[in-house]
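Bug #77: duplicate submission created two jobs. Keeping one. Sequence:
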Amino acid sequence: MNIIKRTITAAATALVAVLPGWAQDGSSAYNWLNITSSSKIYGLGGLNISLVDDDLSSAAQNPALVGPELSGQMTVNYMRYLGGSNFAGVQYARAAGEHGAWRASLQYFGYGSMKETLPDGTVVGSFSPKDVSFSGSYSHDFNDRLRGGIDLKFLYSGYADYTAIALATDIGLNYYNPDRDLSLSVVAANLGGQIKRFDQAYDRLPFDIRLGWSQTFGTFPVRFSVTAWNLTKWKLPYYDNGDGSTDAEPQLKDSFVSNLFRHLVFGADLISSKNFYLGLGYNYKMRTDMSTYKRSFISGWSLAGGIRTSKFGLGLALAQPHAGGTTFMVNLNLNFSELLN
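Kept job's structure:
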């Protein structure tokens, strides 16, 4: 029993360090579910549930965004994250009649090699923790503007010789008005729980209610997005240690404005051409979470860009959550419906 606790404690502590931007909301379990598999979404702040786009990867955070128009697309993603972590995955979509579609996805999260230690700090070995998600989703058009979708996820975690298994569900709705290029979405994310635990302790999934808005205005070639998340709780306090360069005592931040903006992710993408795009995002929660880790001037900001044709697309994203690490993400999209014609 002590060996199990020792291993799990070491892994949990290491993963909190690897995923600091997702781990200061009161729970460190399964926060990797909040990391996007889309370079474009990562460049738009890391979270977006309302972006109606001709790219399968952009639909991963809301099953209601998958539709027959994405049939035949396959997306491969890779991210070089903090602390030697490497994330990768693949997904594929296919139409199910005129008004439905399904999507299958496999995502892998590897955190590199970590030291296994005793409570007194003695190193007794090393291990390579990993998390894997297998998911399948289905969506259906209720009418020409409203679509719903559901995503079922099988979650596997392996830390040294110990494993855990969980089941989760995302349920989403999207309203899209093409005349105004207005998209509104709501998602209930990560409903479910563990069916096999590491130990006696039960780890909760990061259940969340999310709202999203995306829209362009007239002929202005920029689409704006705002995503509200962590809506199951209002207060999201954090400790501010400035830029981490001083020994000043951390100050608790829990004002109305701070809590409000820690619920919001902002994004804007240039859509003047069907063959390329640029995107800029700002995630205030990511920036403020980094106040404990010596954040950089651009912490919280992210940038994406890409090219695409009817047959393939390539997307890239960059961000620097804190001064000690830069993250890089790439997506390759193949449209087999066009490649095979």
